Amino acid sequence: xxxxxxxxxxxxxxxxxxxxxxxxxxxxxxxxxxxxxxxxxxxxxxxxxxxxxxxxxxxxxxxxxxxxxxxxxxxxxxxxxxxxxxxxxxxxxxxxxxxxxxxxxxxxxxxxxxxxxxxxxxxxxxxxxxxxxxxxxxxxxxxxxxxxxxxxxxxxxxxxxxxxxxxxxx
Length: 170
What we know:
Blueprint (H helix, E strand, L loop, with lengths): L7 H19 L14 E2 L5 E2 L15 E4 L4 H4 L4 E3 L1 E4 L2 E2 L14 E8 L6 E3 L5 E3 L5 E10 L5 E11 L8
Parallel strand pairs: 6-7
Antiparallel strand pairs: 1-2, 3-5, 4-9, 7-8, 7-10, 10-11
């Protein structure tokens, strides 16, 4: 029945579909699906916000914004800087160039500069920033929310102090 050349995940999907459709074919009544509670995000102002469904182009989009937390204190005490962030009205995606400007809902990435360095790096993982091996003392991290052409749309600067720690290498 199944080809031995199909990947396991495809075979699993086929089997799951067969299991889901078989009871419906044998039953005379159609089961009513359970209601699904909508999920909401919370904006910086604390108001609920719905993320746009990335399945249809949007005719109008609010300006993108960047939300950045202070470094996680337990990790900072050990000399490890972990900064959580998220974008509103922009999806973090590894797509670059002028052609990606027309994607809707809007996409982009971040730029990161540590301690006013003359260079930065770009990141499109959407995962928290993890910076290690900073010397003890005051530091700042600039995070810029950028479009696919690297134009910065919003930015935040996080100031913090890396404490002296015996396990911390300089």
